[in-house]
Specification:
The chain has one domain. The longest helix is centred in the N-terminal third of the chain and has 32 residues. It is mostly helical. The chain has seven helices and no strands. Helix 3 runs antiparallel to helix 7.
């Protein structure tokens, strides 16, 4: 799967899996979710290690606010609203470039813009804008994956992958809240 994605990132072409059986699409979806989680979490750990190693203060993160909100409302936003809106904004327009010789640039801009917008999750992002590539590397990587899935399987599949990814990452927040685990 990673080999296919890497090949696609190097030379993205708008070519769908039009007649792929549903079991094959589910298999691609499942493997994509696993790889997104593994690599996304690894990149978060790496960026955290770099900021710790060099004693860089990045300020608070938007996810910290999640602990003060209603779990149901946050789940709705994280698992449904954000994936739908973000996929419509960042991956939806890729279809407009289906026959364009400039598709690959649209694909790259889509992934990079998706990652870059997530710097706003940091409280003091204006002070650390120079760290953007490091801090949003997980979102950039996921953006490339979601773009691949959007092209190969369709927009609905990229929305579902985005929703599943966010949901899995949100589960620890739910557990902490439900089990009333103190974080300080």
């Amino acid at each position: 799967m990673l080999h296919k994605l890497w090949g696609y990132i190097k030379n993205p072409v708008y070519k769908e899996y039009k007649n792929a059986p549903s079991w094959y699409k589910r298999k691609i979806f499942f493997y994509s979710l696993i790889w997104c989680l593994v690599i996304g979490v690894a990149l978060v750990i790496l960026s955290g290690a770099v900021t710790l190693l060099f004693d860089i203060e990045v300020g608070g993160h938007a996810s910290e606010e999640l602990f003060s909100k209603s779990i149901g409302v946050v789940f709705l936003l994280v698992a449904i609203v954000a994936p739908v809106i973000e996929e419509l904004i960042f991956r939806g327009p890729l279809k407009l470039f289906e026959k364009s010789p400039h598709f690959k640039y649209a694909y790259y801009v889509s992934a990079l813009a998706f990652g870059a917008i997530h710097i706003a999750n940091y409280e003091d992002w204006q002070q650390i804008v120079w760290l953007t590539p490091l801090l949003v590397a997980p979102q950039i990587f996921i953006g490339f994956f979601l773009g691949y899935i959007r092209v190969k399987l369709g927009l609905l599949w990229s929305i579902l992958l985005h929703a599943a990814y966010n949901t899995v990452l949100f589960l620890p927040v739910v557990l902490v809240k439900l089990l009333e685990i103190p974080l300080e």
